[in-house]
Amino acid sequence: MATCDVCGNNYDKSFTLQQGERSGTFDSFECAIHTFAPRCVHCECAVIGHGVEGNGQIYCCAHCAAHSVVTGSAYRA
Questions:
Q1: Pair (27, 6) in one structural domain
Q2: pLDDT tens, 15-56?
Q3: Fewest CB within a 10 Å sphere: which of 28, 32, 48, 65?
Q4: Each residue of 2-20: pLDDT tens digit?
C-alpha cells in the first residue's frame, strides 16, 4: 500500500505516475490530474483532453483560445 501525494489516502490500489523527472503516487486519476494536468491559460481548468495550443500557451478549448486573441491555434491531437 502507498499513500496518495495529494489527499493522503493510504490505498492498496495506488499507482505511480512519471513524466520526465516528475513523479507522484496517487490513489485515483482525479488526484493525478490535479497534480499533472496543465491548466488553461484563460479559465484555469485542468486540460485533460488534447486541448488547443496557440502562441506557446495551452487552452482547454478553441473558445478560450479565441478569448485570449490567439491566431493560428492548433488542436493537440
A1: yes
A2: 999 999 999 999 999 999 999 999 999 999 999 999 998 888
A3: 48
A4: 999 999 999 999 999 999 9
Beta 74-75 vs 52-54: how paired, if at all? antiparallel
Domain span at 70: 37-77
- How many folded domains does the chain comprise? 2
Residue 6 · residue 28 · CB < 8 Å? no
Concatenate the DSSP letters of all residues of the chain into one string: -EE-TTT--EETT-EEEEETTEEEEESSHHHHHHHHS-B-TTT--B--S--EEETTEEESSHHHHHHTT--S-EE--
Please give the Cα distance from 6 to 67 (Å, whole number).
32
pTM over the 0.85 mark: no
